[in-house]
Design goal:
Length: 128
């Protein structure tokens, strides 16, 4: 997980994100779980292929700026919710949710969890 960061992060933290698209394609439900991680600041979906850093396109934790510190060690559900076109920011702002889905399908989206120790991201995983 930390090894997927650019540059890699030396961490024992782990995470998992589960996504489910609504039948009509207008809502993407997510659950983000993190474990053995400390001082979480924020988590997002970013656009970029593996090995490349990219811009934020969806806030997961908190659901919108600014960042909110979770002090100390954390293990559990970090964020859960539903993404719609209205939640898209950065280069996807104003676009339909299908634009994000297309990027995910192409392997160009990842979840990143940012912490005080690793503000650029401590754990990262491409969405598949």
């Amino acid at each position: 997980m930390g090894g997927q960061e650019v540059p890699p992060a030396a961490t024992l933290a782990q995470g998992q994100a589960v996504f489910q698209l609504s039948k009509d394609g207008t809502m993407l439900h997510y659950t983000l779980i993190a474990s053995n991680i400390e001082n979480i600041l924020q988590s997002h979906i970013h656009l970029a292929p593996a090995g490349v850093n990219g811009p934020v396109v969806v806030w997961l934790y908190p659901s919108s700026p600014p960042a909110v510190l979770i002090p100390g060690r954390f293990s559990g559900v970090l964020a859960e919710g539903t993404i719609t076109a209205d939640d898209l920011v950065g280069p996807l702002a104003g676009q339909p949710l299908s634009s994000l889905i297309d990027e995910i399908t192409a392997g160009n989206a990842y979840v990143n969890v940012h912490t005080s120790q690793y503000p650029g991201g401590e754990i990262r995983g491409q969405i598949r």
